[in-house]
Each structure stands twice: as C-alpha cells, then as structure tokens.
Amino acid sequence: MTGSVGAGRLRARAYAKINLTLDVFSRRDDGYHSIASVLQSIALHDTLEVWPTEGSTIEFRCNAPGSPDVPLDATNLVVRAAMLLRERCGEPGRGVAMELTKHVPSQAGLGGGSSDASAALLAVNRALALGADAPTLQACAAELGSDVPFFLDGGTALARGRGEKLTALPDIEPLWLVVVKPDEAVSTGWAYGQLDAAPERASHRATGRMEVAIRERDQERVIAGQTNDFELPVFAHFPNLAWLHDELQMAGALGAHLCGSGAALYGIAPDRRTASAMAARMRPRYPQTFITRTLSRAEVDPFTELSKEPDDLPS
C-alpha cells in the first residue's frame, strides 16, 4: 500500500478545502446558520501517521511550527475522532499512536482541523482493523463537526443545512491556486455575528448558479461565479485582508476570495507558471504562501500519493 510507513504504520493525507461559494442565510433555532456552499478539496494537506500500540491509551504528537497553539489533549479533533471511533466499534481499549504534521495554517478557513479529524477516522479504522463501515464513519464525522463529513470523500460537493447535507458534484477542471495566510485571525463566531447585525443584508445566493455551471462544465462561469458572503464584513473590519485581496489580483489572479470565514485568501492562477510567479511575489510579505491546486474526488484518497503535485507542497 502506497500509504504505508514502516511496519504497522499508516500515513494519511488530510487535504484542505476552499469554498467556491458560501451563502449564509438566517440563524436557526438551534443556534446554527443555514448555509449553501460548494466545497472543493485542494492539494495543500497535513500528514497523519497512525499505528497500533500495546495497552489502551491514545498517544498523540503534533509537529506544527506554523500553528504552535494546536492542543495535544482530548480537545483536539484528532484525539476525539480516535476515541469516538473506538467506542462506536466496541473497542475502547485498543491502543493507538498518532503523529500529526501540520502544513495547513490554523485559523485560516481551510478546514484543517476538520480534515485532520476525518483522516484520523479513516486511518484509525484501518490501522486497528475496526471494520467501521461508511455509515458509521459518516455518523462519527457528523458528531465531530458540521464540516467533517465532507472530508471523508472530498472532491467537489454541494453543502446545505449546517453544512452537513452533502451532494457530490462532478469534478471541476483543475484550477491552480495561491493560498496566503496573513497574521490576522478571524473568529468564525464574530463573522456570523457581523452578518446577523448588518441591516438589510442580502446573500449572494450564488451556490445554485455555481452548481449549474459545474454540471454544464462551464469553467469560465465556475471561475467568475465564486463568491463568499463573509467577505463584506471581514474586509470592512480587516483592511489588511482587503488589501491582500487586491494584491492577489494585481499579482495576476483571475479572481481572489476569502477561505471560509478567513483569514486566508486564495487567488486563482491561469496556469502553474503564473501561480509560481504570484507566490514569489507574495512570499516576502506573507511567509505562509502556498502553491496548490484543486483535486478530483479520485485524488483525495488519503492513503494514495498524488501523481502530480505543486513543487512546494509537503510530501
């Protein structure tokens, strides 16, 4: 197996995501907001190594030089995922060790923590031979967080409800991207609060149009139709992020958008060469700048290496 790392070890890749659209609607009675979004896997990823151990403990280590605040206890979604899956499979005493190497920036809107949790479910299930089927894995993912289920299959998908109602969409044509994470941090709760407080706020309601463009394989409309309802309040409150948006476009991006609620942004490059030039221009001011690309559903198998990667992605 390509994902093997030594005897009894598995290596899983936890791919990040962007939102091609993100429409935010009213606040629900349960405290969540209804959303509609087209989610898209990208090649930027964390790496999780998992192996069985003697005893019953869950050992967890994390190498995260760019995200020193990652917790190592049961508040980490990776640890919670392993605990939950063992319990669901009736094997709470099976020991497992996990080592996470993070490349996806934290507090970026890229879904890094949720993707790590999904990778943990898949890797622990395989490493311990727990035999959890797809519905069990999906139920565990939904319990861990609204956006965790997406990462089990990845690719391009329509998300509705709280984000947990998923519909697979056809793969889009590959897009080269430059992802930039500045120093700013944006609280997701704050961002939703800003939308709620805005008088006469209207959503872009772009998700339906994006779904049509994807199904009709109209790449020009896929690029032109990308929107994010969080951009208006976030750019108004964080002028540096608004400036970063403009910088990406001046560097050659066909379009630039906020990742989730931020604080990372991505710029769409017309080709790989332009992406490299854009990244070279951005890195002196923004060290956390990444060249990446969108992935098909077949490419997001966490245990299989990509056949073609951007030059500066982690292995």
Characterization of this structure:
The chain has helices spanning 77-88, 112-127, 134-144, 148-153, 188-197, 207-215, 219-224, 231-237, 239-250, 272-282, and strands at 10-27, 33-53, 58-63, 95-101, 156-161, 165-168, 176-180, 255-258, 265-269, 289-293. It is of the alpha+beta class. The strands form two sheets. Strands 1, 2, 3, 4, 5 and 6 form a six-stranded mixed beta sheet that branches. Residues 1-7 have low confidence and may be disordered.
Indicate the low-confidence ranges by residue numbers.
Answer: 1-7
| First-residue to last-residue Cα separation | 16 Å
Estimated share of beta-strand residues: 25-35%
Total helical elements: 10
Rg over alpha carbons = 19 Å
What's the number of extended β-strand segments? Answer: 10
Globally, the shape reads globular
Quickly give the structural class.
alpha+beta
Oligomer: single chain
Please state the average pLDDT score.
Answer: 93
Give the % helix.
Answer: 25-40%
Biggest sheet features: 6 strands, mixed
- The sequence of SSEs as H and E is EEEHEHHHEEEHHHHHEEHE
Structural topology:
Blueprint: E1 10-27, E2 33-53, E3 58-63, H1 77-88, E4 95-101, H2 112-127, H3 134-144, H4 148-153, E5 156-161, E6 165-168, E7 176-180, H5 188-197, H6 207-215, H7 219-224, H8 231-237, H9 239-250, E8 255-258, E9 265-269, H10 272-282, E10 289-293
Parallel strand pairs: 3-4
Antiparallel strand pairs: 1-2, 2-4, 2-5, 5-6, 7-9, 7-10, 8-9
